[in-house]
C-alpha cells in the first residue's frame, strides 16, 4: 500500500505549488496530480457544484489506487472536505487560508486575506476567522480574475499587475503587516506581490504546512513510502485542458499530459 501514489487535485494548475512542497519533503512518494482546468475557476461556483467536482476528482484518484488525497485547493477544501471525509475511507489533507499564524503574529492588528469568493463565503472560513481573528482588522479581498489569468499563461502580465495593485490598495491603506494567500494559485504571484507590497508585509502561504501534515498523516497510517535510494518516484500530471500552462510551471523535469477526466 505504501507504494501507492498520493493523489492531489485542484481546480487547475495552482495546486502544483503544493505538489512542489510535497515532493521536496517526500521525494520518494509516487504522486498523481489532477488539474481540473476545464472547470476552473471553482471560486465563482456554488457549493453544490464545488462538491460535485470534488467528488469527480476524488473518485478518479481513488480508482487509480491513491492511498491518500491532498485537496490542493482552498475553495474545494472549505466547501467539500467534510463531505469527502465522511464519504470515502481514505485520509484527506486539505488547505485553508492561514489566518491563525497571521492573527497571532500581527503587530499592527491588521491582516489581509486574498482568496476566492467560494473560500471567503464558506462556513469553514467564517468559523476559523471568528475563532482566531475576531479582534483583528481583517481586510478580505476576492481575487476575481487572478485564477483565469494564471490558467491562461498570463502570470507575469501587465493585466495581472494592474489587478493586484487594485486588490492590494485597501490592504496597504489599512497598514496590514501580513498578507495571507488563500488560494493555491497565488504562491506563483509572490515575486509580483513582493514588488507591490511595502517591505514590512510578510506573505503567508500554507504550502509547507500542508506537506508536513501529509507526511505526519502518512506516518500515522503506516503509509510512508520506505526510502530506497535506487528507486525514482513516479509523478504524473494530468489536466483536462491545454497542458502548456502546467508544463511551464513544472519545468523540464516533469511532463504535463492531457487527460479527459
Ligand atoms: N487553487 C484554487 C484555490 O486554492 C483556485 C480556486 C478557483 O479555481 O477559483 O482556491
Could you characterize the architecture of this molecule?
- This protein is of the alpha/beta class.
- The protein has helices spanning 16-25, 47-63, 74-87, 99-105, 117-120, 123-133, 146-151, 158-173, 190-196, 207-220, 244-250; strands spanning 6-10, 31-35, 68-71, 92-93, 110-115, 137-142, 178-182, 202-204, 235-239, 256-258.
- The protein is globular, with a radius of gyration of 18 Å.
- The model has no long low-confidence stretch (mean pLDDT 96).
- D-glutamic acid binds at residues 10-12, 14-15, 40-43, 73-75, 116, 119, 147, 183-185.
Which labels suit this protein?
261 residues; alpha/beta; four-stranded parallel sheet; globular; binds D-glutamic acid
Neighbour order of strands in the largest sheet: 4-3-1-2-9-10
Overall structural domain count? 2
What is the structural class?
alpha/beta
SSE order, as H and E?
A: EHEHEHEHEHHEHHEHEHEHE
- Report strand %: 15-25%
What would you say about this model in short?
This protein has 261 residues and is an alpha/beta fold. It has 2 domains: 142 residues, 3-Layer(aba) Sandwich (Rossmann fold); 106 residues, Rossmann fold (3-Layer(aba) Sandwich). It has 11 helices and 10 strands.
List the helices and strands and how they pair.
Blueprint: E1 6-10, H1 16-25, E2 31-35, H2 47-63, E3 68-71, H3 74-87, E4 92-93, H4 99-105, E5 110-115, H5 117-120, H6 123-133, E6 137-142, H7 146-151, H8 158-173, E7 178-182, H9 190-196, E8 202-204, H10 207-220, E9 235-239, H11 244-250, E10 256-258
Parallel strand pairs: 1-2, 1-3, 2-9, 3-4, 5-6, 5-7, 7-8, 9-10
Helix pairs in contact: 1-10, 2-3, 4-6
Bound molecules: D-glutamic acid.
D-glutamic acid binds at residues 10-12, 14-15, 40-43, 73-75, 116, 119, 147, 183-185.
